[in-house]
Amino acid sequence: MVVAAIKAMNNSDILILGAYGMLGHALQDVFPGAVLRGSDLDITDEKEIGRFIGASSPAVVINSAAYTDVDGCEDNRKHAFAVNGEAPGHIALACADVGATLVHYSTDYVFDGSKKQYREDDPTNPINAYGESKLLGEENIAKYTDDFRIIRTSWLFGLHGKNFVETILALSRQMDSVKVVDDQVGKPTYTVDLARATREIIGRDPGIYHITNEGTCSWYEFASAFIDNAVPCSSAEFPRKAKRPAYSVLENTKTAPLRHWKDALADYIRSRGETG
What we know:
The protein has ten helices and 14 strands. By secondary structure, it is of the alpha/beta class. It has one domain: NAD(P)-binding Rossmann-like Domain (Rossmann fold, 3-Layer(aba) Sandwich), CATH 3.40.50.720.
């Protein structure tokens, strides 16, 4: 399908997978009238996903379904690789069969954090099971279709799902101080802005895109933007099952930058009914 035809399509020609997750809800607002599927469609079942996409024959498939529990992926590697690694290949193969464009979301955790920032064409080297599974998903997509848009993003927050902002706000109400690591640096990204950018990416050339809100910060700096009792600590003081990259800043070299994460955060806080 040529890019011009993609731009002219109706939302009813779009299938959103993972439509009831945090990002999926934001995508619903951007693509009203799209066909929506959540847990009722097993993306890890190659035959099931092939039958559904074959029967519905969408012009574009947007896959926002993923297993995003980074620490959970360490304990549940088989599930992580099935959902994040193998399923995208099944979806890509089905898309190729009907001539559909595939849009898929990946992560900054495909990188090891040894550089300050990463371009779309930088070598990947994940250091945890989540990153490994998401990288396998990228590789399987490229194996089965040429008509893909892989959007790498990072540090997602938004309505309708568990995220860092909600976790820290809850802890802030329960504790005198909240320890937050200050030696992991990245780019917070608002689901609303990512979903809006997705429409533009669909009409662009196939390939990998880095889409985040602008501005870099540590988790501590992020938390300090919306609570007043955050206390910095090192990753060593706050051990987790999955190793995290020290720097996972995604550099966008292909599209216009999104607004700063602080502006996006202010919108999010307002949208959830907070006053500060």
